[in-house]
Amino acid sequence: MYKLAIYSFIAIATSTSFVFLPSPPKSYYHSLFISDSLSDNSSIANHLFILTKRPHVAGSEANAEAAAYVLLILTSYNIKSHVTSYDVALTYPVSRSLILTPSSSEKPIEFGLSQEIYENDPYADVANEVLPTFHAYARSGTANGPVVYANYGRVEDYATLREMGVNVSYTVVLARYGKIYRGDIVHNAYAAGAIGVLIFTDKDYGGAKWFPDDKWMPPSGVQVGSVYDGTGDPTTPGWPSTGECERLSNEEVDDSGNVPLIPSLPISSADGDAIIRSIGGKEANVDWQGGKDSPIYRVGPGPAIVNLSYEGQQVIRTIQNVIGVIEGEEEPDRFVILGNHRDAWTFGAVDPNSGTAALLEIVQRLEKLQKRGWRPRRTIVLCNWDAEEYGLIGSTEWVEENREMLASRVVAYLNVDCAVQAKNFRASATPQLDELIIQVAQQVKDPDNSTQTIYQSWLGSSNDTTVKLGRLGGAGSDYAAFVQHIGVPTLDLSFGDGYPVYHSMYDDFVWMKKFGDPMFHRHVAVASVWGLLALRLADDEVLPFNYLTYAYELQKSAEQLEAEISENGISLVPLYASIEKLRKAAIKIEDDVKLKILDEVIAQFNSNS
């Protein structure tokens, strides 16, 4: 009886000790998150395969099915999730034609304007679901006139044409993709007096072989995309497209300056080459020429005449943002947001569903952490946006609808669009996140060289003593509303910075499996970096921001501005004074944080003594 009592006491004491054992530190869960035991490249590959079975442009049935899949995965991993819908103005092609008359003595050539199905294409049976090649929000109309070649269609390119004595008025401009946004190409052509624009993928952007035999764009491949210069629904600028909301008329949208006023079409390198060969006039500058085996590029105008015709249709369609929430235990009203868009111009294996697959991998890992007892200090919000390709519409509408709440509660927004395009890690951020990105990159293995961290490879690729971190200007992806509307710390990251089959029907799972990331290890690495950044921001007691970096960046920008306006008699003394105040405040915060950490270490030491 005595022994039984002793054994019972030991059993109770032992079980009680387990009950009252302290939880592992957050750093334990962070290390576990990036460990091989939690990562799953086969799961990522499966997500991507399912998401890219069909073309899924915004507003389509296929994209609604993709949204349902994302929602299913979130809920299956016990993430509280919902769909937020908006009714927005989207455009689709109705008819297009392009006819080239090389000269008065030659017969007209009518282009097919189609992307060819490749041999043994596993998606041939759904290729008819790919929209005809077009520019979203392009002006409907017909343009008939001589062709002028305008290089990349930049402002400086038109200055060069003027210097060469070339009059662009009443011509159809032929410009090649690259250097600037396609919407700006159309805008600049209109400003120069053109009546229409053709934008082609120059064939020097490739090799002797192309997809599916190599990674390069096939001759019939076309980069489609939007030519809208704004963000969000063009008919509801500044307010969300919900219910029976007020909308701008077509005339008011035209007057906004954000939509083109002349028709345009994207065309393939093969069609662009045929037009280039029919242009006469002066020989273009060396840096305007094509690559090996290209003809001599001339600027025109003519003798080639093109007839460009485009008719589009604007309709109100429902788009769906899928939102998942893991509520924070201690600061539930502070949000760390991860975002990626789902809609694609075609199959979207790189853009954007490599990012979607990585997001779902993060969800899977977070669920495993929760099973082991982890709970975030702050709330983590997982967002899968819709209609990004048209003009960052899903994310912008959501921010417009929740602006005041988000501005006061968001800790940071972490964006991934194309998770994997090629080798080499890249990141862009608002400056207070620079140090955190570097710290995280030092913890994750490089997927292409397991003997190094991502940081070490990143540093090596920069050929410098510091890594190259970009900044988030413009409206390149869904980070725009968070930076420009509510001004929160934001970053964007990926592997690679561009890929040959961008926005074409060849951006499919086959391309990714053969050329983008055959083993899906880069996808795993993106999920590790992206997720660990979120965990640090959600769990660190003191937010890991470094505003000294911000002050340094502002100082550098102010000095550049001063050099540009030095002859205008404008003083930047007040600006420099403000930057100095920020620098001193940042130093004080850093010192206070160090003191707090020291106090905690001493207290922990005393409690263990």
Automatic annotation (TrEMBL):
GO MF term list: metallocarboxypeptidase activity
Gene Ontology CC entries for this record: endomembrane system
Keyword Thylakoid part of the UniProt annotation: no
Top-level taxon in the UniProt lineage: Eukaryota
Membrane topology designation: Single-pass type II membrane protein
Localisation per UniProt entry: Endomembrane system
Sequence ranges assigned to domain PA in this UniProt record: 144-224
EC number(s) per entry: 3.4.17.21
CDD domains linked to this entry: M28_PSMA_like, PA_GCPII_like
Swiss-Prot/TrEMBL catalytic activity: Release of an unsubstituted, C-terminal glutamyl residue, typically from Ac-Asp-Glu or folylpoly-gamma-glutamates
Chief site of localization: membrane
Keywords of this entry: Carboxypeptidase, Glycoprotein, Hydrolase, Membrane, Protease, Signal-anchor, Transmembrane, Transmembrane helix
InterPro entries referenced in this protein's UniProt entry, alphabetically: PA_dom_sf, PA_domain, Peptidase_M28, Peptidase_M28B
Pfam families, alphabetized: PA, Peptidase_M28
Residue ranges constituting the Peptidase M28 domain according to the UniProt record: 321-509
Full protein name: glutamate carboxypeptidase II
Origin species: Nicotiana tabacum
